[in-house]
Design brief:
The protein is mostly helical. It is built from 16 helices and three strands. The two termini are about 40 Å apart.
């Protein structure tokens, strides 16, 4: 019998797959297919970065135009999926609603090719996120506007108003930051499901279930609720000190990979200030975030992560808090699709072992003798 090696909890430091998709490092760097996140954040579009992650290279102008046209063509959600959403109780968490909708989408679109399924699920996620929220509140679903870019259309459906060019660009920056992050909990979940040869909808439904947790995707909603509770920069230090004294987690801080700086957080921090200045709303929100960030670093040496600054950016754009985690999912699904395909290129079903520490040798006792 082969020797069984015991892995550390959480698989820390254990490589379980080879990948060419993305890499995050403790030195505070993140690359998508070899390109620095800063370069893509500053110069790329969501569609271009999506193409890069899916196909491993930047597209030509013609390829990008064709890809953008495909995403627009696939953005309409089948009516029966909305009927499924309407049957879900209004008080349900939006990630539960979205997870159910994606599962329903899989039951609806079984007749198209695997490549069409992948593009369909990516293109329909913004429409689903916006309309799951709208339907859950008794509103009619919003139809995608083909004259707008994906990010501008997405923000329009979420808020009900057409965004300015800078607002759409700002929202698109956050979608790019959320696109991919190597073997995080949800991506690993997707690869495990892919290894069984289940379809892309099953894998992404599982990814959504993993992303819902507050230690993963749910952190942006929790961070916003925390910032609203703190209120002002003057309250930041007392709040942090009291929370740490009670051993409470400060949401939006700390990361399994980044120990000193999350590059996405610092890009988002700068973006938040620019957005507030552009809208003429004052810098109170920025100063609040900066004060919390400073207090946590001084007390615990924990860096802010992308969720901490994503939350106030989404709030400033007028996006409902309930949709923050679904927005994360609608972007990260691109990475999930790439991981799904990469897993199948050299597949072996995941089947780790476990160290049994339970009882042994017990004798069965008949029911009437217990």
């Amino acid at each position: 019998m082969a020797e069984i090696l015991r892995a550390p909890k959480g698989l820390d430091g254990v490589a379980v797959a080879d990948t060419t998709i993305a890499k995050s490092d403790a030195d505070g760097t993140l690359t998508y297919r070899g390109y620095a996140i800063k370069d893509l954040f500053e110069s790329s579009t969501f569609e271009e970065s999506t193409y890069l992650i899916l196909y491993g290279r930047l597209p030509t102008k013609g390829e990008l135009e064709e890809f953008e046209a495909k995403l627009k063509r696939y953005s309409m959600v089948p009516h029966n999926v909305y009927e499924l959403v309407k049957a879900i109780p209004n008080e349900a968490h939006q990630m539960d609603v979205l997870r159910t909708a994606v599962s329903g989408l899989g039951a609806t679109e079984g007749g198209i090719s695997s490549e069409e399924q992948e593009l369909s699920i990516i293109a329909q996620m913004p429409t689903l996120v916006a309309n799951c929220y709208r339907l859950n509140r008794g509103m009619e679903p919003a139809e995608p506007d083909p004259s707008l870019s994906l990010s501008a259309n997405y923000l329009h459906m979420l808020t009900g108003k057409k965004p300015s060019d800078f607002e759409a660009w700002s929202f698109e920056r956050m979608l790019i930051l959320y696109l991919e992050h190597d073997l995080n909990a949800s991506a690993f979940t997707v690869r495990v499901v892919a290894s069984t040869l289940a379809d892309i909808y099953s894998a992404c439904t599982a990814g959504l279930a993993a992303l819902k947790g507050p230690l993963h995707g749910g952190a942006n909603e929790a961070a916003m609720q925390m910032l609203l509770k703190i209120g002002t920069a003057a309250n930041a230090r007392p709040y942090v000190q009291e929370a740490l004294a009670k051993r409470e987690k400060i949401m939006g801080f700390g990361h399994r990979v980044y120990k000193t700086v999350d590059p996405r957080s610092q890009l988002a921090k700068k973006l938040l200030r620019e957005l507030l200045e552009k809208q003429g709303k004052g810098l109170e929100t920025y100063k609040l975030c900066e004060a919390v960030e400073s207090a946590v670093w001084e007390s615990k040496r924990l860096p802010s992560n992308v969720d901490f600054y994503a939350a106030p950016i989404f709030m400033t754009l007028g996006i409902p808090i309930e949709t923050f985690t679904p927005i994360f999912a609608s972007s990260r699904i691109v990475g999930w699709v790439a991981h799904y395909n990469e897993q199948l290129m050299d597949n072996r079903i995941y089947r780790p072992d476990a160290t049994y520490i339970g009882n042994k040798g017990l004798n069965y006792v008949p029911l009437d003798a217990r």
